[in-house]
Amino acid sequence: MAEVVKQLSTLLDHGLIARLERLRITAVGHRTARGRGEHLAGRGGASTDFVDYREYAAGDDLRYVDWNIFARLQKPFLKQFRREEERHLVVIVDVSRSMEIEGKAFRARQLAAAFAVAGISGGDRVSMWSSAASGGAVLRLPPCAGRPFLRRALRAAEEIPAPAGGTTIDRTVDAVMARHAGRGIAVLISDFLGGGDVRRMLTRVAAAGLEPHVLQVLAPVELDPALSGDLRLVDSETGEILDVSDIGDLLHLYHGQREALQMLLSQGCTARQGRSITVDAAADIGEFVLGTLRRRGWLA
């Protein structure tokens, strides 16, 4: 009788997990925390493994200035060394009520699981959070590192609850940043349709020493609404009702607002050494992670 192989996760199949284990999450800059890890330090280190030079910046350790170059060029350059340092990967998942539309919540769990696998396999110290109805954040996976925690990370993603009301993604991020310590990458998974101050949220993440990597998950009906006639629209977050008789003009305004939000996320992340992408909740998860994210440089 053939042996039955236990499924590692209800979110990702074995093949996708195996391929994710061979990938690494790429940072835009160098944000690492003190501690043992596998990443190149952005500033001078104690190792003798010389890497490169860069121009001196205020606050740099003068011990790593190359004084021979300074004597020749009259300009200080800093010697960079390879040093094992720890990088944190903070995964934050929005479970506000608008995320229940057309499988967005399930896609968000899949993305959280995928990044956790790549992070743990790549030597990152991974933690996972979800928003709370009270307006705060719930810690689903305490910071952990190493392959023994892979199953635990997958289970944490599976146990992210169904969407509920009462919060916005920026309030969730505030709650996480108030409790997190460590430099690295913050992966923010949300539709970003629930309101809140996006610029302040991204600034808060960057100020904590984390690159904001934003995945905006939208349903097909949100990407390309096929609507006509008289409609009654209900706000999924607040329950407010709007009766519409001319959907054509409203759709034009909607697309303009959606594109403006995508631009705000993209420019806001780029300005803070991060990145942003919009995810179709109906797209194949494997093709998106192994295809789109690799082509865009998120994974390598």
Notes on the protein architecture:
The chain has 300 residues and is of the alpha/beta class. The chain has two domains: 50-81, no CATH class; 88-295, 3-Layer(aba) Sandwich (Rossmann fold). The protein contains nine helices and ten strands. A six-stranded mixed sheet has the order 5-4-3-6-7-10, sandwiched between helices. α3 links the parallel β3 (88-93) and β4 (125-131).
Keywords:
Rossmann fold, alpha/beta, 10 strands, six-stranded mixed beta sheet, two-stranded antiparallel sheet, disordered N terminus, 9 helices, 300 residues
Write the layout of secondary structure elements.
Blueprint (H helix, E strand, L loop, with lengths): L13 H7 L29 E6 L11 H7 L3 E5 L6 E6 L10 H18 L3 E7 L5 E8 L5 H9 L10 H11 L4 E7 L7 H10 L2 E9 L1 H4 L7 E4 L6 E4 L2 H25 L3 E6 L4 H11 L5
Helix pairs in contact: 3-4, 5-6, 6-8
| Helix and strand composition category | alpha/beta
CATH architecture of the largest domain: 3-Layer(aba) Sandwich
Largest sheet: 6 strands, mixed
Amount of beta strand: 15-25%
The CATH superfamily of the largest domain turns out to be: von Willebrand factor, type A domain
